[in-house]
Amino acid sequence: MSTHPPGAPPPRRLRKEPDERRDQILACARELFSSRPYGTVSNTEIAAAAGVSRGLLNHYFGTKRDLYLAAVSEMMSVPPIPVPAAAEGAGLRERVAQSIGAWLELLERNRETWVTALDTIIAGGDEDLERILQEARDRAVDHMTEVVGLTPVARTHPELRAAFRGYSAMAEATTREWLKRKLLTREQVHLLLEEVLLHLIEEVLPRLTRAAQASSPEPE
């Protein structure tokens, strides 16, 4: 039964603020891009899912490509899980395993968005997408050095950050083998990334820093 008083004007519909409306459109776009190939999703479908007009969607995002770039940027800007080093008794392997597990969970939830982004980068020609992913790689390197407790060392040894960027490229390629080609399972990807990263930290990086110190010119 309606509680609207007789003779009173009908209640006004609440209008969403622009930022809230934009976030709603972006959330629907991310869901569609993450579950289906990019080419099968249209702006008309995204607008319908968000409950807005096509014109309003275009007002906020312009083209489908612009909306897709915004979706990728938002996905890659998700704050990393807290580094579990603060937890009493957390060892290196535990910190690495937890960080990798959270990253793989993010990619699995956004499967199609991630695969399309990687395919586009491989094909070349999209500088905006490359910039978004490069910024994400830099944040990933920052997070990795924090997880493994090497942030102070990485500030004075750029070869460590370079090595971590190389590891990130391998991680991207490996997840593509899992999510697109289905030649690896998530468990296999996790095992591979965990063991390679631990070997890099424990065996390779110390040798890299010693080599860099040995090749540095002596102060005059």
Automatic annotation (TrEMBL):
Pfam families reported for this sequence: TetR_N
Membrane-spanning segments: none
Superkingdom field: Bacteria
Keywords of this entry: DNA-binding, Transcription, Transcription regulation
Biased amino acid composition, Pro residues: 1-11
A single GO molecular function term of this UniProt record: transcription cis-regulatory region binding
Occurrences of domain HTH tetR-type (ranges): 19-79
UniProt DNA-binding residue ranges: 42-61
Region annotated Disordered, chain positions: 1-20
InterPro entries according to UniProt: Homeodomain-like_sf (IPR009057), HTH-type_TetR-like_transc_reg (IPR050109), HTH_TetR (IPR001647)
Protein's UniProt keywords contain Zinc: no
Gene3D superfamilies: Tetracycline Repressor, domain 2
UniProt protein name: AcrR family transcriptional regulator
Organism lineage: Bacteria, Bacillati, Actinomycetota, Actinomycetes, Streptosporangiales
